[in-house]
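Protein record

Derive C-alpha cells from sequence
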Amino acid sequence: MYYNIYKIFNLESQDMKKIALSIEINGTKEDVWKIICDIEGSVNNIKGIQKIEILEKPEKGFTGLKWRETRTMFGQTATEVMWITNSEENNFYTTRAESHGAVYTTRFDLNQKDDVCELTMTFGAELVKFFTKVMTALTGWIFASATKKSLMEDLTDIKNAVEGN
C-alpha cells in the first residue's frame, strides 16, 4: 500500500503561519527608525542579541545590508546570516534568513499616531525541506508560543531603547 506522506501531513504547502505583534512607543517614526536600523548597535538595545558582524554594506540606502547575528533563542545560542531585502525609510523594512530547511522573513512596520509610533513586527517562515515540514507538522505548535514571547521581548527592548528606559 502506498501512502503519500505529503498529503497526510499537508506538507505540499506547509508554511508556518505569520505572527504579527505590535507595540506603542512614545516617540516619532524617525526615533524608532533610528533604533531599528542600527543593526550594529542592536547588541546594546536587544537583550537576546550577543554579537553582530556586518558582512556587506550597500553603497547607499539600507536595502542590501547583510550581517551575521548571534543570539539566544529557546535557551540555545544560534548564529544566523540575515539581510535587508526591502525598505522604505521611516516606514518599513523586511529581513530574510535561510536556515535549517526554512526561509524566515521579518517585517518591521511603523505607523505614527499623534505622539506615539506603533511598531509592528511580522514574522513568517516558508518551509522548504521535507524533514523540516514533517517536524513542524508534529511539533510546530510548541514553538509558536515561544516565538511570540521572543518577538515581544525584542519589541519591548526596542521600546525601552527609544524611550530611554
